[in-house]
Amino acid sequence: MSLTIAQLNAAVPAEAVALLDGIYEHSPWIAQRALAARPFRSLAHLKHALVQALAASSAEEKIGLIRAHPELAGKAMVSKTLTAESTNEQSKAGLTDCTPEEFAKIQKLNADYNAKFGFPFILAVRGPRGTGLSKREIIDTFERRLFNHPEFELGEALRNIHRIAEIRLDDKFGADISLGNDVWDWHEALSAHTDPGYAEKGQLTVTYLTDAHRACAQQISSWMRDCGFDSVHIDAVGNVVGRYEGATPDAKTLLTGSHYDTVRNGGKYDGRLGIFVPMACVRELKRQGRRLPFAFEVVGFAEEEGQRYKATFLGSGALIGHFDPRWLDQKDANGITMREAMKHAGLDEADIPKIQRDPARYLGFVEVHIEQGPVLTELDLPLGIVTAINGGVRYVGEIIGTASHAGTTPMDRRRDAAAAVAELILYTEQRAAKDGDSVGTVGMLEVPSGSINVVPGRCKFSLDMRAPNNAQRDALTADVLAELKAICARRGVRYEIEESMRASAAPSAPAWQQRWERAVDALGIPLFRMPSGAGHDAMKLHEVMPQAMLFVRGINSGISHNPLESSTNDDIQLAVEAFQHLLNDLATEQAH
Known about the structure:
592 residues, 21 helices, single chain, five-stranded antiparallel beta sheet
């Protein structure tokens, strides 16, 4: 019999600690302190209470917990003195069956890691799916994390300890994470489709209307039909559209979805999570034979990243009538126009205006998305409520000074263009940090015809500034541009700058943000509100209907646009359950 939250809540303290024995390696004190948060509302609430108990502990206690863990394939495994839990985990990862070469490699990594950090390498070897990492994945992770900063690595060790504890709790409580598992598996299966030139390297790249892109569309369509959508089709720009009709023919529609294209050598979850999570919700509704008092439309947007053609948000933009016919004449790197690519894919450009949605027929748009950042993972929170999608402005500029001899030009006589840009970079960093949630980046730097022994006479640069609202973005921009002018005047150089992009912030509609908040709260998870620094399809839909987003924690410090991008089956399960709560909440509202 699996343990239940009700049993844990009812148990006397000593018995409750005993019920949680083995969750944290040789460290019952964590459970003892977490019990102060009883009664637990859910398993997710218990997990968070354990996280908070450890977060509030001393540095010595944290190091002690890490050192209580055995080395991977270490002496304790060889001497068979591992705990039952660790034996199970290391055996599932194949570490109890290493070749002599693998064993020697891991022993060397253990020694190097201990020498650098002073504690053993901790990895949740059962992985994000709970079924076990391969030995190759373990060794690759070991080698990568050896280069981390000690303070960051301490946090990474603790995060992996929490993941180990989470999996052990799932086992102890018999947690049903089948929906999270299925959604996780859909991501893995879809990642088999990748563009030529990247497939050979084992990299994921899916750009607009390539063969891999069209294969993804067909695969998503097939899964949508299997889930029980009433209709599934690929529209005039390649969006995959699935509809689950409401209880009445004239019902309004809730719109959701995200994109299935990727950046080059990207991750498996960016965009796609927002397609698969609501697909799982539709499948459960179909299994229950249940109709909602509104229709539910899930769209896999064909293009968001702007990788093959300079037409970002093409898929979601087309739904609001923002398809620019001039895009059709753009050419990709191989000289193929978008018009030719669409024709090859069997799409008719004449049908594009027909796919524009009538906002009056829609209740709103919601989107689930992997966070693409480190905030949730550092807070050890699985879900976050998006308050706004940041507005942004981009510039490309150049500072022009005087190229001169690096040896003969005194420091106080220089007109160094690169030094002026360096000063601007530091100011941008400091100024954006004052707002707390603004960001400023100089992502491109170039010294044309630069030479090691020449004071840079020219320096080209980019500026990217973002904030949760337009006023805050504009204040940041004004200060940075004023400082650019002041730097150049002080240094005796001149500048040229041109605005290349401006996007308005997209605040979440309060009523829809509150629906996500109620859904997350119902799971027993603390509410954490945060802006989105990245752009999303929701930005486009925001122009014609209310929108709100839910973020899902990523692993590997939340890295995104990177092969290491991932999430766990547990966090995805919670995202599906939150979406189900939102649907039920909305159904109750609509019924009254």
